[in-house]
Automatic annotation (TrEMBL), chains A, B, C, D:
Name of the featured protein: Peptidase M14
Domain of life: Bacteria
Entry keyword NAD: no
Matches recorded under InterPro entries: AstE_AspA_cat (IPR055438), N-alpha-Ac-DABA_deacetylase (IPR053138)
Residues in Succinylglutamate desuccinylase/Aspartoacylase catalytic domain copies: 2-217
UniProt keyword annotation of Zinc present: yes
Keyword terms of this UniProt record: Hydrolase, Metal-binding, Zinc
Necessary cofactors: Zn(2+)
């Protein structure tokens, strides 16, 4: 949705450099339905998440770091490193025994992103507020989007595109610092932006999201003579370790009382649960309470819930940015 | 959800006769998920709708009608006919080559309903207003529920529980009229009540729905000393032939602009469609207009739509009751 | 598979008329997987069978029959009737409120078949012998294929392509006979050929199947100077009413002891069933026996079976052709 | 299947110690079907593999190792370590924010296995030969089963039950060796036995598999006065790194020419592939050749294959044991 608005609005803008917009990165996921809803997140053949097959070889980056000298220009290092990364992706894609489908798709996308300074991976998911994943070293960029909830992530690779983009540069910076005591900032940034439910389209909200992204791009100097600025608004941040998942240990029908974005105090109700097997007893309905002060960021999109379901993902120990 | 409230509220009431509440009639459908949503409507093994395996043998009813004399009391006919129906279901269930799973479950439920005067089949489905299916002969009962949208159905069997309940009685009445010129009303009624989305639970709405059902039961004399009366409200009705389905002949992402229950004039926008394959052309987005005056009753629950999708089901040629 | 061999072999043949080969008629069904297997038979969004959305309007055919005179040539009738059918399909496809996806695809295919004299619908399904559905009036054609098991079907429309092809011509013949006492044979034939499991590809068997089809086409005069003749072999036939489905009324793990095509006497074992919930009792395993003399034609493809599963489809009261 | 036979045969045997047989460890996976086949391997809600949610905390084991003295008896260490492991599982299960469904089920099973000396995890999967995963330190046990293909795995945890069982003991042995230069063998062994296709039940083969397992148990002294001995047979082994997966980089229909267990030389045909989109060109069919000498152990169970499918898993660099 936001891609559509970005395309419309960038048409009339003066762009410095190049912007590549890739809609529909999981072409297969988008088309698969089981029942009326879309099975967008994983490969129905084998359960593989469509967004966790990106590539990062930490050892190879550390090895590359050893080739950097105290004198080499930052631009020179960037250029050589991009060639190194691109080459590594090509080698991976040419793996003689082949690769799984998610990994094939991911690597082709990663190859497209290898020369970019700013990589924004736009996601849709369950019922949620807008939120963004930000590498800790780029914390200042949190204020350049109009996104109220920010998650700061460490230099740990778990297979996603943003990590596959920033982990190499972050690792290179750190290795060079260790090796040469030389402090470099490459100014490459990557984010995952969560844009709300995949099952709801709203053209107005899409346009608001486009403004949020344009405000980041403008702040980074990508747009000429553009006056879009980040909104003055409350932004809350957490470290990844404080972004917690609340699993159920029961099955039932659920009314989600706490809405995404809402401040909930410890002990306040999160959900009302209907136990279908006990409708005629006093256990027919009960309330689930917040285990601590928190803000729900997203909840499971269905009212019908099994034991072990990710009911809510929540901010704890959050603070204003 | 409404079952829960009915159980709570009927506990303290004085009931005339017997009320059987059967929650979770498709136990298998309810538990099956593919992705995060629930695949409640059909058997994932073979595509069989869980709610279209009920039983009606028109010829056998017409045959039975011939045994009715001009003198036989209505209560006598009802008793004999119920025994006939119950026997027919038992025979079907004992089919030596077996039955499909949906049919097995349906017939067991139908056997439970065979002695009832009033059968209410409570459904949940996609995003919709509350609506109710009513046999044409029981049109007056439309005003006994607090349901704004009513669909009047003819004496045609398509496999559902309400039809399986009223088609035999309706056919019997008509056959007796033809055979003996005797006009009888058996006062057996059956309805399908559509209670909104299966993916949203709301305890307050469940209680309001319970009041609606209690108001019908009270009007029918099932509850003693109960003062729940149908609400004064607008009720709109259509014949089944005017309850139309609008299919897509394109695939895309959809914003549902017309909301269930809303009056839409011919030519007004129903939906805004995003064509992912043409985002960068003028065909990136377009509007779908209402082909005639209508009221959307439900729309497809997902924003991602293929060609041939049931986008909306709508009232046309409706009138106030 | 057989399509591949037909293409290769027809390349070098002298064809009289035109042969249209349409591989992959359910493009969507073929690509959908849930787990490792293919969900080929129904639309996973709504459970609609991909092969039951064809079109037949019996009333319109009877109406058309009234326009036929005693003098009109057979070729003249055929030409007019084909135009009538083609027009009816076009009208249906242009339905202003749209059509479901299966129906859209089916009607486009039916339109391609409307001018054909011989329509062969090639299916794959579960674990089965080769078998063929033949309209009763074309019984003699059973001996033109090399297919051991033949099912003769009456003039009843259930939505399949073969029926959608022959029901109109059959109904027209019968109406003309009734109206004018004129006996006409239009020599239009349609069949559904079941070519074994969709989950097993065997190039050799595909070639054998191609020979079987070429032998039919040759007998019908489609191929010039071709010496492929039907094999001398045992062929068994049943009426559709004697082609029976054996459903389970239990769930469990199954060893299919009776193989497709094998003669089984009443009381002989069909299957050995493992009851997982009773492994440690004497009910851990039991044998299912044939309820009458029969030949299994196909069985459910999975060893894991629920209650209400179509375990076997079998020939009863079969006879040699 | 094999569980059934083990139960029957162990009934009459004299067992030393205790044998716990747990059939149907993935109760949810076993019951879920999408189409006619069983979706046994992962949770259809979120793609989580049902067999990769077991628990191993390497740091905690190394910490425990420091409490072991040079004098402590092996039995004493085992007893204390079992209490430690059981306690760690309990703590994990009591996680206040809850756990995913697969992990809940896995941990309960792991708790049942914590006191066992021999843990056999019996799997079914796609079309395969019998094969077994064996920790490298227990290589000698490869000859105690009647299983022709053995995979030796290192001390690396990837979430499976066998690893969750042996990684702690293996790590403990190694830590004690490092810390105290004391060589201990705890004689705890764990294996994953792959018993062929989940979609085929064969009572005779189940009994043969039971003999294979009883021969291991007897060799380990679990059975008194039992004369079941491992068969003299060829057994082939590989290291995990040489057990390779061959992915497709095309989609199509496949005939699996090389059968599981068969010796294939480099360049010999593995599969014949039908390209549905090119049936009428010379690219309609082509052969996939073995990239090196190998033995296929399993192949994908469906003939319909997408790009990125695990077509074969094969032994390379294998040797006779």
């Amino acid at each position: 949705m936001v891609i559509y608005h970005l395309i419309q609005r960038l048409k009339d803008m003066d762009i410095c450099g190049e912007i590549i917009l890739v809609p529909n990165c999981n072409p297969i996921g988008t088309n698969i339905k089981a029942g009326e809803y879309t099975l967008g997140r994983f490969d129905p053949v084998n359960g593989t998440n469509w967004n966790r097959g990106y590539f990062f070889d930490k050892g190879a980056v550390e090895h590359f770091a050893k080739t950097v000298t105290r004198e080499e220009s930052i631009e020179g290092i960037k250029q050589r490193f991009r060639a190194h990364l691109s080459n590594a992706i090509d080698n991976k894609l040419a793996e003689p025994w082949g690769l799984g489908l998610a990994q094939q798709l991911n690597l082709k996308l990663q190859q497209m992103a290898v020369n970019a300074d700013f990589v924004l991976d736009l996601h849709n998911g369950p019922v949620s507020t807008r939120h963004v994943y930000i590498p800790e070293y780029a914390k200042d960029s949190a204020k350049l989007f109009n996104i109220p909830h920010c998650i700061f992530i460490p230099n740990v690779f778990a297979g996603a595109l943003d990590e596959a983009t920033f982990c190499p540069w972050w690792t290179l910076q750190e290795s060079i610092k260790t090796n040469l005591a030389r402090e470099i900032s490459f100014n490459v940034e990557a984010f995952t932006l969560e844009m709300g439910s995949q099952e709801v389209i709203d053209f107005n909200e899409g346009n608001i999201d486009a403004t949020s992204i344009l405000s980041y791009l403008n702040a980074k100097g990508v747009l000429h003579e553009c006056d879009i600025k980040p909104k003055a608004m409350q932004r809350l941040g957490v470290y990844l370790k404080d972004y917690k998942t609340l699993f159920t240990n029961w099955g039932g029908m659920v009314e989600y009382m706490a809405k995404p974005g809402q401040t909930v105090k410890k002990g306040e109700p999160l959900a009302q649960i209907l136990n279908i097997d006990d409708l005629d007893t006093d256990n027919g309905s009960r309330t689930l309470e917040a285990p601590c002060d928190l803000i729900p960021i997203l909840h499971f999109p269905s009212a019908s819930v099994l034991s072990g379901t990710q009911l809510y993902k929540v901010f704890t120990n959050y603070r204003e940015l």
